[in-house]
Write a structure and sequence with these properties.
Layout (H helix, E strand, L loop, with lengths): L6 E12 L2 E12 L3 E5 L6 H9 L6 E6 L2 E2 L7 H4 L2 E3 L12 H10 L7 H8 L14 H12 L6 E5 L7 H16 L3 E5 L3 H7 L2 E6 L2 E6 L1 H7 L3 E6 L4 H5 L4 E7 L2 E6 L2 H11 L4 E7 L2 H14 L1
Parallel strand pairs: 3-8, 3-9, 6-7, 7-8
Antiparallel strand pairs: 1-2, 1-4, 4-5, 9-10, 11-13, 11-14, 12-13
The protein binds adenosine-5'-triphosphate.
Adenosine-5'-triphosphate binds next to β2 and α1.
Keywords: ATP-binding, Nucleotide-binding, Transport
Organism: Rheinheimera aquimaris
GO molecular function, one term: ATP binding
């Protein structure tokens, strides 16, 4: 019999309100060792609140948090536990005045099982700028340094909050590669992102958070499968109003001449489309992408 991988993180029924504003309303999820879990959600969904609660940076009103099988009490997190966690800071939280080398030195000094300064400079790709102050780095370089600093203690569980924010395409892809290498070496990773492609590329599972609740949880393929729709793209003379009136159409997007519809029953929609406009061209029917699944999942719950 195959043994179940140990849960590195287990949260159940977390509630947190700020005055009258509910930020978490029963959030529940579990994460296995070595997994990359992406937390997606619209602005204000509760992502930062959830991560802050897991790290013990804020107190919750009720619910349970288990890390590496240990129930956490209040905001206390033991030194031994914190030695196993890596957290990527936001740019504003770093010390602008310290040099890159000094930041690496400071961070690795916190940990017993540490990476050397040379290793951290290598991960950040900032060897030639080791003596530059943090404030003089570009936005992308700052992000890379913060990523490296999160790895200073060789964490077992790593929290990355929008790690590629503001990075150009090449830098983003390079960081994705580093995240994949960490996963391959057995590190468990919680990732929040607004880039759906990033979640699709990196995550084993995605948790969709909305209004403080996990409304969907599964692999990128499982989430897109929850939306039975297909994406139909074509060039047509029909107006938006005519297209929306076709059977089973859920969404419509128009880019100049091209129109893309999300349909719950692609065959019916295509048949009616061709009957209504015999001049349709460049017709393509594709599986729905994660972005449409995310929009539909969050729209459905909003309306409920
Ligand atoms: N310190 C605070 N005081 C009062 N309300 C707060 C505080 N922090 C968060 N909130 C509220 O709690 C809710 C969840 O916020 P949170 O920052 O966790 O969302 P988020 O998903 O991280 O959003 P974003 O994608 O915009 O970063 C929001 O309604 C927010 O206004």
């Amino acid at each position: 019999m195959q043994s179940q991988p140990q849960a590195v993180l287990q949260i159940s029924n977390l509630h947190k309100s700020y005055r009258n504003q509910a930020a978490l309303q029963g959030a529940t999820l579990q994460m296995a060792a070595g997994e990359v879990l992406a937390i997606l959600g619209p602005n204000g969904a509760g992502k930062t609140t959830l991560i802050s609660a897991i790290l013990g940076l804020i107190a919750t009103d009720s619910g349970e948090i288990n890390l590496f099988g240990q129930l956490q009490r209040g905001t206390k997190r033991s030194t031994a536990l914190r030695q196993r966690l890596g957290v990527m800071m936001q740019i504003g939280a770093a010390s602008a005045n310290l040099t890159v080398r000094e930041q690496c030195d400071l961070f690795s000094s916190y940990y017993r099982n540490r990476r050397t300064v040379a290793e951290l400079l290598d991960i950040a790709g900032l060897g030639s700028q080791a003596n530059s102050r943090f404030s003089s780095l570009s936005g992308g370089q700052k992000q890379r340094l913060l990523f490296a600093l999160a790895l200073a203690g060789k964490p077992d569980l790593l929290f990355l909050d929008e790690p590629t924010l503001g990075m150009d395409v090449q830098a983003r892809r390079a960081l994705w590669q580093q995240i994949r290498q960490l996963k391959a070496s057995g590190v468990s990773i919680v990732l929040t992102t607004h880039y759906l492609e990033e979640a699709e590329q990196l995550a084993d599972r995605i948790a969709v958070l909305q209004q403080g609740r996990i409304i969907a949880l599964g692999s990128p393929a499982e989430l897109t499968a929850q939306i039975s729709g297909k994406r139909i793209c074509c060039t047509t003379a029909l107006t938006d109003q005519q297209l929306r009136a076709l059977p089973a159409v859920l969404q419509l997007e128009r880019r100049q001449q091209q129109v893309c519809l999300v349909s719950q029953a692609a065959e019916q929609t295509v048949l009616a489309l061709l009957q209504a406009d015999a001049s349709v061209s460049a017709l393509e029917v594709k599986a729905v992408a994660l972005e449409q699944a995310f929009l539909q999942l969050t729209a459905k719950k909003e309306a409920a």
